[in-house]
Amino acid sequence: MLRSMREVLRNLRWPVLCLGGTLQLVRAGPGKDLVRRFEFTDKGDIRMTKYVAFSGGKDSTALALLLPDSIPVFTDTGAEFPEMYGHIEKFEKVTGREVIRLKSKEGSLLDYMRRTKFMPGHAARYCTRIFKIEPFEKFTDTYAVAIRADENRKGNTSDKVIYPLREMGIGLMDVIQICTEYDLLPRYPVYMARGGCVNCYYKRKSEVLAMDDFVPEVLDELQDIEDGVQDKRGRFAFMFPNSGMSIRDIRKQMSLFSPEDVYREASDKSDYGQACGMFCNR
Ligand code: SF4
C-alpha cells in the first residue's frame, strides 16, 4: 500500500516536515536549524517553482516524490529505452500525478543523426542541448533539478534553477530509501548505466556488449546509423568512443570469445565513461 509522505520522510537521516504545499527540512544536530523552505506557487518569489526536471533516474524520482506539489517534466529524445517510458508510467500510476512529456521540434535524436550524418559525442554534445535543455527551457525557465548533496556537480548558474536535494543535504542513500518506499527505485538494465538514450556516447564497451546480448535489434539500428554517417575520406567516427571501436567490431569481438572473457576485458578502467548531464538519466 502507498505510504504517506510523512511516513517516508520520518525515516530520513534528518527530520522533514511536510506541511500542505510547503516542504521544510530541519537538520538534526546542535546549531542546525531550518535549512530551507520551498513553496510551490505561480506567484511571487523567483525561488518558488513548481516544475521538476524529471530524467527518469533515481535522483529526480526522489525529488519529485519529496515535492508532492511539483509537476515532473520529462524531455524525450525519442531515443530512450522502453524501460524509461515504463518507469514514467509507473510513477504516474503510483503517485496519481501526470508527468509532462516534451519533445524537440527536431523530432527523434536517431532521425536527426541520420538526417545530418552527425553523431553526438564528448566534443559535440548537441543531443543534450537540442533534445533535452532547449525543449525544457522553452517550456519553463524556473525549475528544480536533482543534484544530490554528495555529488560534485555545479549545475546551472541561473538563479531561476534550484537544487533542493543538495540544499537539503539529501544524498545517495536517502534517494534510494525514498524511491524504495514507493516501490519506484528504477532498476534499469546494465546497458542503461550511462545515459537513457540507446546511442549515448558515455556508454562503456561492456554496456554495448550487454545490448548485443539483450537487445540486439536496438544495436542493429545503431550499427546501421553508424555505418551510414561515415565520411569515406576521414577517420571512422565511433558512436561509442569510450570503446575505441565501431559497433561492428565490438560485435565481432563478442563472437570470437566467451561472453565472460569479453566482459572482463571490457571492464578495464580506460573504458569507463563519465557521468551524464543533469537532464539525462543517471
Ligand atoms: S543520455 Fe547521452 S545521448 Fe542522451 S541526451 Fe544525455 S548525453 Fe545525450
Task: Describe this entry's structure for a reader.
The protein has 282 residues and is an alpha/beta fold. The chain has two domains: 5-188, HUPs (Rossmann fold), CATH 3.40.50; 192-271, no CATH class. 38% of the residues lie in helices and 11% in strands. The chain has helices spanning 5-10, 58-66, 82-95, 109-116, 126-139, 164-167, 172-181, 205-214, 216-228, 247-256, 259-266, and strands spanning 16-19, 22-26, 34-39, 51-53, 71-76, 100-103, 143-144, 161-162. Strands 1-2-3 form a three-stranded antiparallel sheet. Strands 4-5-6 form a three-stranded parallel sheet, with helices on both faces. A two-stranded parallel sheet has the order 7-8. Helix 2 (58-66) links the parallel strand 4 and strand 5 (71-76). Helix 8 (205-214) crosses helix 9. The two termini are 27 Å apart. Iron/sulfur cluster (SF4) binds next to helix 5. Residues 77, 120, 127-128, 131-132, 195-197, 199-200, 202, 276-277, 280 line the site of iron/sulfur cluster.
- Number-wise, the strands total 8
Query: How is the largest sheet built, in terms of strand order?
Result: 1-2-3
Which fold does the CATH topology of the largest domain refer to?
Rossmann fold
CATH homologous superfamily identity of the largest domain: HUPs
Instruction: Give the CATH level 1 class of the largest domain.
Output: Alpha Beta
Alpha plus pi helix count: 11
Task: Specify the overall morphology.
Answer: globular
Low-confidence runs: 13-22, 24-47, 271-275
Indicate the radius of gyration in whole angstroms: 20 Å
H and E order:
HEEEEHEHEHHEEHHHHHH
Could you describe the largest sheet, including whether it forms a barrel? 3 strands, antiparallel
Tell me the quaternary state. single chain
* End-to-end distance: 27 Å
